[in-house]
Amino acid sequence: MIREDVPGRALSLVRESYKEIPLYAPNKVPCPIDLSDNTNLYGVPPHAERAYREATASAITRYPALYASDLKGALAAYAGVEEKCIVTGCGSDDVLDSAVRAFCDPGDAVACPEPSFVMMPLFAKMNGLKALNIPLKSGDYDIDADALLATKARIIYVCSPNNPTGTLASKAALEKVIEKAPGVVILDEAYAEFCDQNYLKDAATHGRLLVTRTLSKAFGLAGLRIGYGVGAPSLIGEVEKSRGPYKVNAGAERAAAAALRQDMDWVREKVADVIRNRARLTEALKGLGLSPVPSFANFVFVKVPKSATEIDKAMRQRGVAIRAFSGLPGVGEALRIGLGPWEQVQAALDALKAVL
Ligand SMILES: *Cc1c(COP(=O)(O)O)cnc(C)c1O
C-alpha cells in the first residue's frame, strides 16, 4: 500500500549537511523598473538575438556540443587567451560549483570574503565543504589578504569588483593572495567589463588561479545562462571534468558566440553608458546626504539610515525594485542599486528620495 506523504518526513531523508542550507530565493516579485539583479537593462545584443531566433531544428532535437567548442573559440578571442585555457558552463555559477568539486574533498574549506557573492558559501556547503567567512576590511572593503591566507583553505575565493560593495580588491592584497595561497584561488570577475583591472592573462599561465566570468551582466544574456572560466590548461581540464558534458545549450551557445563576435560595439556602448550613470548616481546619492561606495561595477552600494528591507518594500510600492541588505555583517543596512538607462536610475532616485 502506498501511504500519503507525511509533512516533515522529507527532512529525515535529506543530507545532514543540507539541512541548514536555505533555498536561494530573493524577492523576485515583478516590478515595472527592476534594478535588483545587475543584469543589462538596455535590451538584447542584436546579433545574439538573431542567432538565437535562427537556431535550426537540430539545435533543439540533438545534443549540443559536448564542451561548447565553438563558444570557446569566441571566448578565447575575446579574452585574449588560448582556447585550451577556457571552460564554459551553465552560467558562471556552474563554473564556480564545478571548481569547488574539482579541487576540494569533503570536509575541506573554502575561504570567502564577507560580504561578497552569497552563492559561493552555498556551493561550498552543498559540496560537503566548510565555508570560512573572512570579513572585508572596514572602511575601504578591501580583502584581508593575511586573514584569507591564514585559513590555509584549499580554495580562496575573491570577487573583484565585489558584489555587493562594488569595490575592487587592491592589487597588493590580491597579488599577495595569488602568490601565497596554498591551493586554488578563484577570482570572480563577473563585473570586470565595468572596470579596467583584470587577471585574465595571469590566469592563463599561473597554474593555480581560476578567473570566472559571465555573459549575464555586461553582455545582457542572463537568461541564456552562459559563464566561463579562464586558467592554465591543467587547471581548466579538471574543472571541465567536474562540470561534465552538455551544460551549455545549443541555442545559448550560438547566441553567445554571435554576441562575442559581432555585438562588441553594442556591449561597449552600453558599458560606457553604465559608467557615466554610475558617476551621476553616486553624486545624486551624495546629494541626498548618503555616502555611496565608489563603484567599479554596474551598481552602486550605499548604506542607509533606516531598515533597508522597509525602504525596499516602500520603493517597490512605487514601482522600483532595488536589492536590500539588512543586518549585513560589517555593514548593517544598505542598498545595491543597479545601473541602466538614466530614466530607470532617475526613477529609483525619485522613489528613494520619497521613501527617505
Ligand atoms: C551575477 C553573478 C554571478 C553569476 O553569474 P551567472 O553567470 O549568471 O551564473 C557570479 N558571480 C557574481 C559575483 C555575480 O554577481
Question: What can you tell me about this protein's structure?
Answer:
The chain has helices spanning 9-13, 46-53, 58-61, 69-79, 91-103, 119-126, 145-150, 171-180, 200-206, 233-243, 250-262, 264-287, 308-317, 342-355, and strands at residues 33-34, 86-90, 109-114, 130-135, 155-159, 184-188, 209-214, 226-230, 299-303, 320-321, 323-328, 332-338. The chain is an alpha/beta fold. It has 2 domains: 28-43 and 265-355, Alpha-Beta Complex (Aspartate Aminotransferase, domain 1); 46-262, Type I PLP-dependent aspartate aminotransferase-like (Major domain) (Aspartate Aminotransferase, domain 2, 3-Layer(aba) Sandwich). The strands form 3 sheets. Strands 2-8-7-6-5-3-4 form a 7-stranded mixed β-sheet, with helices on both faces. A 3-stranded antiparallel β-sheet has the order 9-12-11, covered by helices on one side. Strands 1-10 form a two-stranded parallel ribbon. Strand 11 and strand 12 (332-338) form a beta hairpin. Helix 4 runs parallel beside helix 11. The longest helix is centred in the C-terminal third of the chain and has 24 residues, at 264-287. The protein starts with 8 loop residues before the first helix and ends with a helix. The model has no long low-confidence stretch (mean pLDDT 95). The structure holds pyridoxal-5'-phosphate (PLP).
